[in-house]
Request: fold
Amino acid sequence: MRPLDLEVNHATLAGHTFQHELQVAADAGLLGSIDANCGDYQKGWDTDQFPNDIYELTEAMLVILEAGGLQGGGINFDAKIRRNSTDAQDLFHAHIGDMDLFARALIMADKVLQKSNYNQIRQQHYASFDAGAGQAVEQGQLTLEQLRDYAAAHGEPATTSGRQEYLENVLNRYI
Ligand SMILES: [Mn+2]
Reply:
């Protein structure tokens, strides 16, 4: 199958985050290229605005970096300046500003992966999928009935925190 070209605003319209779209494509080995734009959360149609959210782009770059990059494609601005941006210079500000924003997001995401314990915490949180019954489930080797028997035999698992707020703080620290 040919790699996919993912559009940010289409994810928004489908009720997904862009990071979700990227991760699903990456997990399927189909992360090809990006139609880089953003939508308007108050409108129900495709506004194709130039992206402007450093937080969202950093999260996107985290997915892209961890996937080993885009498969042959790039980041293209499927975006339009707003109707009230009527000067010639508006088009330059849109493109130059967004190229800088993507570059910054890439640097920030790389710092998060290289310098923080972001991935270590995630791996610890999902460690039960890396061995034993959890790994068997992930690999499709355990039926639902077998999983039910396992749960009945082992009782309530200990609660471990997902530490979401801490991880949000880590991202914000590097942004
Ligand atoms: Mn569009």
Notes: The pocket of manganese (II) ion is lined by residues 7, 9, 46, 48, 78 (CB under 6 Å). Residues 117-175 form one domain.
